[in-house]
Amino acid sequence: MDKAAIKNELVKMLGRDKVLTEDLDLMYYSYDSSFLTKLEPANPTAVVMPRSTEDVANIMRLAFENDIPVIPRGAGTGETGGCIALRGGIVLDLSTWDEIIDIDAANMQVLVRPGVIHAKLNEELAKYNLFFPPDPGSSQMCTIGGMVANNASGLRAVKYGTTEQYILGLEVVLANGDVITTGGMKARCIKNVSGLNLTKLMVGSEGVLGVVTRVRLRCWPKPRARGIAMAVFDNLDEAPAAVLDVYQAGVLPSGIEILDSSAINAVNGFKPQINLPQAEAILLFEVDGNPPGVEFEGNIIKEVVGKRARTIEWSTDPKRMAELWEGRSITATAAARVKADGSRVFAGEDISVPLSKVADTLRQIRALGDKYGIKVVNYGHIGDGNVHTAPVINPENPEEVDRVLQLVDEIHRLAVELEGTTTGEHGVGAVRRQYAELEHGLAVKYMQGVKDAFDAKGIMNPGKLF
Amino acid sequence: MEFQKLPPVKEQIMKCVRCGKCRSVCPVFEQIRNETAAPRGHVFMVGMLRDGVVEPQPEVYEKLANCLLCETCSVNCPSGIDIHELNAAARSYIYDKNPSAGKELIFDTMWTRPGLLRTTTMLMGGVQKLGLQTFARNVGLTKILPGDMPKAEKIMTNVPTRSARKQIPKFNRAKGDKKYTVGYFLGCGTDLFNPEIAKSTVDMLTRFGCDVIIPKDMKCCGMPHIANGKMDTARRLMAHNIKIFNSYNLDYIVSDCASCTSALAHKNTEFLLGGLKIEDEAKLFSDKIMDLTRFMVEVLDVKMPEKNVTRKTRVTYHDPCHLANAQGIKEAPRELLKRIPEVDFVEMPGANTCCGGSGTYSLTHYDLSMKILDKKMDRAMSTGAAKLATCCPSCTMQLKYGTERCHWDCEVVHPIVLANRSCQQALIKK
């Protein structure tokens, strides 16, 4: 079937308002937030906006019969090229399919379609004193479907974990158009060990196994109080040690963030009025729960971390908490502005290493930045060893692009060498699949076997993950 | 200046990391919901234009023009990109390669000649008064108008038959001790559609010690031209207005119109005229530009006449994008309203979301504009207010139409009009 015939068939199936086929329209789907698609945007053959499981199943059957790649896409906020049609094909824009089907407060769960925006879901759940804890920085724009596909998390993963822990079941349309339900056709139960766990297999599979069309999410009671501590360190090594001290004192904060000296300088350079203290590192601890518990744990953090930090300040006052958190909240933005003609590059941005090696990792990344003559700003979720590295270059200067690509390759390899991984929460997509062998060895062969079982023709999001 | 060399085009496109934050705040995207309407998509497309990957064709213009230029994306952009400037510059680049006789007539022949524009508008008012607009609508004559105009002509209701300029002298002396000499930038929307705002502005300024000069030869601020791909014309208008206003010895130049002050403020003059010879004169001019409510509150610090009001009127406020987003002015209009003894001020949810008017957007994209308006009206009506205040003639026109669509008995009014009425009533009581 040629391109024109595919387009006609899709229009016939879904109606003109749910299909984009003009070349100009398709260009808008050639990118996500990855550096890769800045360098090499790739247009799909068509974009469709299905609004029912049946729509998706019909599209899959058409694609299966005609060997057309299918690429599911949420809000396109990913940083890996995961939703890009690298080899042409049909992009399923699922972001308009944003129905919250059922908030089942009695059973602490919610059933949604893939296009629901994370922040909007939590707005609705708040009415029932519930929340869906994973908290990505892109909460205002990312979709639940995208979070499932990438097993997303965020700064509260240290306490609440990642998306996979909250998925009770999924509806998935497979490459041949079959519709399966994982976690049980009727199951609303919280505990469930029946059958092979296809739910966990699907979460984080980045669209290479099927299209997630319905998600049953577990929700948790919304914490009533919050407190924040800011600790300033003269010695970088003391920062991860202080984190360990806090854990050993029996406290599990809801967030532990680090800004190293590069990030402190970036924040102060961008907004001098914030005036973060000059230091080797700043740690921010967030504690949530009920008010007495928050106060109790805050006091422990103050006492324990105070032994290692130059200064520590604890607050539960909303205004002061916002001030303490301000430096962290603008770090990503500030990073982009450390170079006048520069832009922050989303590449090599998401490594994860053991807590005991965070300080060493930060030092080595700094050295690599010096080696390649590139400004690098480091911050991240130190509580779980997830370091966000922000190289800043002029992306329109080919020589700088070449250097940064070498830099991020070294950063990825460094992470693996330090017993970590190339990605903690952003995913693999097209940009990190080259490290699959290095990270997984023989297991890649079995991953391929699993994919073949679900997608014999290899039409589901080709060129991604491994 | 050549499109590719314009500062935002040269410096800002590469800063976009396509994080998608703009998707979460854009009122047009909220309605269309696909990437072709995302502000980051516009930045991407401007980059494609700059690099010659796409040609400056009308269909690209259509994509870019489906944007209110409300600047919500720009103020929320983590990378600090002036997305609206990129968009406007690209529209102009494409338009220059694909000029249209209709636009030349409207934006160059008419909208650069205040007299002609006034005569045409007043004729429209006459037509309405004679019932000919209704007649034309009933017999289907309005359907011959291009694009969305047949639907959108309904928005322009109750055009006055006498413009503000015909009713207000050029020079207006301060009552009592003079504090400042103020130039009044009387924008087209106020002059032609809202003369009461102009009269209230002059009354209030003179009452609180200002000599007010309304230069006879001033022209449009250029905002409609910027939005419609006519940046060169906007530059010419800007240069003309700078020359006219700089010929007077003024302490301030105020305007009741958010779009005018936004067009004339330093940020925009820099965008339009940056690098050109006129730059110093432009700075002298734009440094004096100030929104009227800000001038009343922050410079004049007006004290309203004290009185005992037994029954206050509930008033809510809509933030014009060109005031709140473009100039960061949110407090001054609210403060002015709160100082009026008769006003019981109540905040509406989402006060700073666009009303969908945006100058000519409601005329060119009527259906989308109405969807955005309906959302706004739901929020405004939830306050139970009897008056809906705002500081922009375009918003005023759109919101008035919104109250009619919703059958909501609510006056859409500029804060300065309410302030003036309060002062006048105090005088009558004395």
Structure explained in plain terms:
The complex is a heterodimer of chains A (466) and B (430). With 466 residues, chain A is an alpha+beta fold. Chain A has three domains: 3-95, Uridine Diphospho-n-acetylenolpyruvylglucosamine Reductase, domain 2; 104-221, Uridine Diphospho-n-acetylenolpyruvylglucosamine Reductase, domain 3 (2-Layer Sandwich); 223-427, 3-Layer(aba) Sandwich (Vanillyl-alcohol Oxidase, Chain A, domain 3), CATH 3.40.462.10. In chain A, 36% of the residues lie in helices and 20% in strands. Chain A contains 17 helices and 18 strands. Chain A has helices at 3-14, 23-27, 35-39, 53-65, 118-126, 144-150, 157-160, 198-202, 238-248, 261-270, 291-306, 318-329, 331-336, 358-372, 398-417, 436-440, 443-454; strands at 19-20, 46-48, 70-73, 90-93, 100-104, 109-112, 130-131, 167-173, 179-182, 211-218, 220-221, 225-233, 255-260, 281-289, 311-315, 343-344, 375-381, 386-393. In chain A, strands 15-12-14-13-17-18-16 form a seven-stranded antiparallel β-sheet, sandwiched between helices. A five-stranded antiparallel β-sheet of chain A has the order 5-6-10-8-9. The mean pLDDT of chain A is 96. In chain B, the strands form two sheets. A five-stranded mixed β-sheet of chain B has the order 1-3-2-4-5. A four-stranded parallel β-sheet of chain B has the order 7-6-8-9, sandwiched between helices. In chain B, helix 3 packs across helix 6, helix 20 (331-339) runs parallel beside helix 24 (415-429) and helix 22 (366-381) crosses helix 23. Helix content of chain B is 52%, strand content 7%. Chain B folds into three domains: 3-97, Orthogonal Bundle (Fumarate Reductase Iron-sulfur Protein, Chain B, domain 2); 171-299, Rossmann fold, CATH 3.40.50; 313-429, Rossmann fold (3-Layer(aba) Sandwich), CATH 3.40.50. Chain B has helices spanning 7-11, 27-32, 39-50, 58-65, 72-76, 83-97, 101-110, 114-129, 132-138, 149-152, 188-193, 195-207, 223-227, 231-246, 258-264, 266-273, 279-286, 292-299, 321-327, 331-339, 361-364, 366-381, 393-405, 415-429, and strands spanning 171-172, 180-184, 210-213, 252-255, 289-291, 313-317, 343-345, 387-389, 411-413. By secondary structure, chain B is α/β, with parallel strands linked by helices. In chain B, strand 8 (387-389), helix 23 (393-405) and strand 9 (411-413) form a beta-alpha-beta unit.
